């Protein structure tokens, strides 16, 4: 009698275990565990932050100077006493090596107010912009830069898809359509450039100069290093 009772308990326990395992397997088949998302960094929260490059020749664009390799001279070859001619001396022409342009504009986050960014590197000097529409649209208020220059109100917009920075100075910020001001500039190419446009005020009937800046973001990829595996090929020396 006791053996029958114990057998029944063991069978019930085994059945419950099998049933629980089948439930776990069915859940695993329906749902897949996704990897944990990468931590949210400041750059991802405020994608406008970073370094930008204006086109060469544009006011404010800074390019690294080219370096010139020194000329090399080939010494004459040694000759026998009976030789009548010696090898001529040949000189190699200087080679100019162009280096990459350095970032000319940087945008950093204010240390106190996360809704303020600082733009540095333009001819006007360093000035600030206020976040209006997260995460890439900012209003530039009329202010005096670190160089003592007065700048008018404007708009800063960062195009995430094109990695392009757009700045317009001289036209009030448009609350309804902040990026409409850049349609006036409408650059025909994607290269960074600076241009000016004149708009006419209906009330004062005066022309207002609007200065546009566009620049490409300098994307820095994390450096990765791989170690070579396996031994190298030995070469017989003769």
If you had to describe this structure to a student in words, what would you say it looks like?
The chain is α+β, with helices and mostly antiparallel strands. The protein is built from 3 helices and 15 strands. It has helices at 2-30, 42-45, 182-185, and strands at 50-53, 67-69, 73-74, 90-91, 95-97, 105-109, 116-122, 125-133, 137-140, 143-144, 150-151, 154-159, 164-169, 193-200, 207-217. The protein has an 8-stranded antiparallel beta barrel. The model is unreliable at 62-100, 188-193 and 225-238 (pLDDT under 50).
Note the beta-strand portion: 25-35%
Structural class: alpha+beta
What shape does the CA trace take?
A: elongated
Radius of gyration: 34 Å
What can be said about the biggest beta sheet? 8 strands, antiparallel, barrel
Helix-strand pattern = HHEEEEEEEEEEEEEHEE
Region (Disordered): 63-85
Biased composition (Low complexity): 64-85
Signal peptide: 1-20
Keywords: Signal
């Amino acid at each position: 009698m006791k053996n029958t009772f114990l057998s029944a308990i063991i069978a019930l326990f085994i059945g419950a275990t099998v049933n629980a395992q089948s439930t776990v397997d069915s859940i695993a088949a329906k749902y897949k565990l996704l990897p944990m998302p990468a931590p949210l960094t400041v750059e991802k929260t405020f994608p406008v932050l970073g370094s930008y490059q204006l086109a060469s020749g544009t006011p404010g664009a800074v390019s690294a100077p080219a370096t010139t390799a020194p000329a090399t001279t080939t010494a004459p070859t040694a000759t026998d006493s009976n030789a009548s001619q010696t090898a001529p001396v040949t000189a190699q022409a200087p080679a100019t090596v162009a280096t990459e342009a350095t970032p000319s504009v940087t945008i950093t986050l204010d240390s106190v107010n996360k809704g303020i960014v600082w733009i540095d590197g333009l001819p006007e000097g360093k000035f600030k912009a206020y976040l209006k529409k997260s995460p890439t649209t900012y209003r530039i208020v009329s202010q005096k830069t670190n160089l003592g220059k007065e700048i008018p109100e404007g708009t800063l917009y960062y195009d995430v898809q094109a990695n392009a920075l757009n700045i317009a100075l001289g036209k009030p910020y448009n609350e309804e359509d902040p990026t409409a001001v850049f349609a006036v500039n409408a650059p025909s190419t994607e290269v960074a450039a600076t241009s000016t446009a004149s708009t006419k005020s209906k009330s004062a009937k005066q022309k207002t100069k609007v200065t546009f800046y566009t620049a490409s973001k300098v994307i820095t990829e994390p450096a990765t290093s791989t170690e070579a595996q396996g031994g190298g090929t030995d070469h017989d020396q003769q």
